[in-house]
Amino acid sequence: MNERQTSVVVLGGGPGGYEAALVAAAIGGSVIVVDRDGLGGAAVLTDCVPSKALISTAAYVGQVEEASKRGVHLEGGDDVHARLEAELTEVNSRILSLAQAQSRDIRSRLEQVGVTVVEGTGRLVDSSTVEVTPAEGRPTTLHADMVLLATGATPRVLDSMTPDGERILTWKQIWNLTEVPERLIVVGSGVTGAELAQAYLGLGSEVVLVSSRDRVLPGEDADAAALIERVFRSQGMEVLNRSRAASVRRTDDGVVCVLEDGREVTGSHALIAVGSIPQTADLGLEEAGVETSPSGHIVVDRVSRTSARGVYAAGDCTGVLPLASVAAMQGRIAVAHALGDAVAPLQVRGISANIFTEPEIATVGTGLASPAAKEMGSPIEGEEGIRQILMPLATNPRAKMDNLHEGFVKLFARTGTNTLVGGVVVAPRASELIFPIALAVQQRLTVDQVASTITVYPSLSGSIAEAARRLHVTPED
């Protein structure tokens, strides 16, 4: 570490920013976080934490019917019309309170380790100077040995379907709803669209999912996406494949979505989920010599360096992978590298991701990555020399106990070495089940090493070991 104290300025208080600030303070840096939207960023305040809390709440609705399938009935006889009902004002109030509490916890932790938080908007003057404009008052100038850009991303908005915050909404605006939409049109069948479409379906909305591709979740494992689409339809969701939305506009009492083939879909509300764009405009990037991609993302290497000396970047503004966990790791790597601490470059091989549908879809090492991540060495699904096995959960004894009919475990192994290189889990709490697979991929374990690890019986994780056993290669093979 440098003999003198290194000054660090972080622009953005999301996972990439606040995690970096904590590490920088721990290894002796003098740290200032410039934050505009609230500590925790979109991940905590309007995206990951709130949306997953909404999904969790939606899972409770309809459990009266589920209980009856397990032999548990309402006292006095079953009422076939009995169901839980969501009061959306209460639901959203609770969710936003959770988000604010998490944000306060982050601020408290930063202050405990000596990080200074400045509320305002930061902009690079050059590679070592930041101008901060507060909500009120005059701009101030900060000088830094290191600057970390962690400004995140914001919902993509199209001129033909401009959100109004009332009937036409982005994922940032849905928390203002006071009633469950009667009929919700979700434009976009990627991760955000799929998750929120099923959540509102569970809360009681009629849902139409407009997908421009052949299937929902077009960037994900094909088997997993096909299963989720089948679940969506079985739950009553209307899924329109190969149906690109041309426009969405308000009517007197709702919205209408016009498809490119001329069809019209009417609803009470529309959720626009057509991707995100990096928040890199007006950051002074060109003046500071920071290179960006054609999409506006900041170009970084595996230790989060930009093209400008002393300037690093982390999170969704870089376009590596739109995951809070990756943003946090990029931020930690950046400050460790800048302050001279031990550091290992970002490894995308063992990064796991999860889609919080029901059942969840968790993946690791299957090539489900951005072009930037693939340049860093992400495995590409379908490459030669890869064997795979798919184990349906229907035969798992724990799945039978929990009345689970949909789901599977899929493992990928490299021919010759039998090294585990990826996996997909579709199951309740797949986000937890993916960890042993991610650990095996990261540590380059063979399928035999995974198979020889004893699992709890009965457990869903038993299917992971069983899948590994079925990938075993005998000498005769």
Topology of this protein?
Layout lengths: L6 E5 L3 H12 L3 E6 L5 H5 L2 H13 L2 H7 L18 H25 L3 E4 L1 E6 L2 E5 L6 E4 L2 E4 L3 E3 L12 E2 L13 E5 L3 H13 L2 E5 L11 H13 L3 E3 L4 E6 L4 E5 L4 E4 L1 E4 L3 E3 L6 H4 L22 E3 L10 H15 L13 E4 L4 E5 L6 H5 L10 E7 L4 H5 L6 E7 L5 E8 L2 H13 L4 H5 L10 H9 L7
Parallel strand pairs: 1-2, 1-7, 2-3, 7-18, 9-16, 10-11, 10-16, 11-12
Antiparallel strand pairs: 4-5, 5-6, 8-17, 13-14, 14-15, 19-20, 20-23, 21-22, 22-23
Helix pairs in contact: 1-9, 3-5, 3-6
Question: Describe it for me?
Answer:
By secondary structure, this protein is of the alpha/beta class. It folds into three domains: 7-48 and 92-155 and 277-338, FAD/NAD(P)-binding domain (3-Layer(bba) Sandwich), CATH 3.50.50; 159-274, FAD/NAD(P)-binding domain, CATH 3.50.50.60; 352-470, 2-Layer Sandwich (Enolase-like, domain 1), CATH 3.30.390. It is built from 14 helices and 23 strands. It has helices at residues 15-26, 41-45, 48-60, 63-69, 88-112, 191-203, 222-234, 285-288, 324-338, 371-375, 397-401, 430-442, 447-451, 462-470; strands at residues 7-11, 30-35, 116-119, 121-126, 129-133, 140-143, 146-149, 153-155, 168-169, 183-187, 206-210, 238-240, 245-250, 255-259, 264-267, 269-272, 276-278, 311-313, 352-355, 360-364, 386-392, 408-414, 420-427. The strands form six sheets. The protein has a five-stranded parallel beta sheet with strand order 3-2-1-7-18, with helices on one face. A hairpin with a 4-residue loop joins strand 19 (352-355) and strand 20 (360-364). The chain is globular, with a radius of gyration of 24 Å. InterPro entries: FAD/NAD-bd_sf, FAD/NAD-binding_dom, FAD/NAD-linked_Rdtase_dimer_sf, Pyr_nuc-diS_OxRdtase, Pyr_nucl-diS_OxRdtase_dimer. NAD(+) binds at residues 188-195, 275. Residues 7-331 form the FAD/NAD(P)-binding domain. One of its GO terms (molecular function) is NAD(P)H dehydrogenase (quinone) activity.
